Automatic annotation (TrEMBL):
Residues 126-420 form the NAD(P)-binding domain. Keywords: Decarboxylase, Golgi apparatus, Lyase, Membrane, NAD, Transmembrane, Transmembrane helix. The chain crosses the membrane at residues 42-59. It is a single-pass type II membrane protein. Pathway: Nucleotide-sugar biosynthesis; UDP-alpha-D-xylose biosynthesis; UDP-alpha-D-xylose from UDP-alpha-D-glucuronate: step 1/1. Its EC number is 4.1.1.35. This is UDP-glucuronate decarboxylase. SUPFAM superfamilies: NAD(P)-binding Rossmann-fold domains. It comes from Erythranthe guttata (Yellow monkey flower). One of its GO terms (molecular function) is NAD+ binding. The keyword Transmembrane applies.
Amino acid sequence: MKQLHKQSSMPISHASQLYSPKSLKHPRSLPRSITYLLKEQRLLFILVGVFIGFTFFLLQPSLSPADPRPHLFSATRASLTTDPDPAAAAATYANSNPVARNNPRYSNGVGRVPVGIGSKRRRIVVTGGAGFVGSHLVDKLIARGDDVIVVDNFFTGRKENVVHLFGNPRFELIRHDVVEPILLEVDQIYHLACPASPVHYKYNPIKTIKTNVMGTLNMLGLAKRIGARFLLTSTSEVYGDPLEHPQKETYWGHVNPIGVRSCYDEGKRTAETLAMDYHRGAGVEVRIARIFNTYGPRMCLDDGRVVSNFVSQAIRKQPMTVYGDGKQTRSFQYVSDLVDGLVSLMEGEHVGPFNLGNPGEFTMLDLAEIVKETIDPSATIEFKPNTADDPHKRKPDISKAKEFLNWEPKVSLREGLPRMVDDFRNRILNEDEGKGN
């Protein structure tokens, strides 16, 4: 017993050394990690895997998908490697590649363009997009494949103008007043929000000038934050009652700053100032369009503008109202021509301003006669006193738009007016049926 007690009292560490299985079985064994690799040919499989991976990365350029636009890139990439003048080759690549042209990262021709980036669908916001012009612009943008967000407070816009787009996955409608800021992520901003007819902008002149100033500030601020291109729809009213005829973009105008139309005239002039200051001071890409009288389907039936007034009155068998002696002149462009001009301006490289209008000039009496021929030869004319600050002449010089935008109107008044009359006749008929007439 004593002997057993002595053995059991032996230090544990010493005992473990005497009876350790490792020390008995593998006195000179390799580390366990190396032993694991050597068993079952694991090392061979690892080496084969490394070789396959290395081979794949070497051959990757030849295995990548074919460029969907080889006509844009093949020649220019070759020129970058063979052209003795690298700077000229880089410039050629940047000019021929739309991605490089629009992205400073590729402006020097350096950098790999990800496959498919040039065909990326654009995301566009149109303020006032439920209005007359805005809804036609939205139709064009949707038709060419863009995602469009319409922002409208429905003061003059109507859901009926865009209801045909409800359910389209590329269309979104937000009820919002641009006087309040809004946060969006878009590539382009078409800023159309503002009442454009005298009846509407005189109804609340303070709100009108807020829309022109605060609304434009908010949308320019958004463009600055997200790097979007911004197009301002200004107006021929910035020329006031012009002393120059026809009006060129270099003409500074003859505007009454305290008149009843000043909320719109001076508001748009201020909006142009803001756009140019954001362009010069903050680097925002801006475009400015000065829109002349436009007509077409979806105009408000009683908005006070001469074409809609004459057409509505003639359809309703009412006398056509001519203010003053009827010898004041206007130029009328069809809405599809204007929309084409706006898109050309946005996609172009020139800031503007650009006159967008039809240089065909008509007196109010001429227009009344054309409306009579189109709708009712027996229609009569009623003369009333002219309104304050009403311009006597208005005709755009569009030579600048022809040269830099390759744009000019295509639809004549006699061709476009019947299209508008059909739309007005249907809406007036439905309106009368709703009243029980």
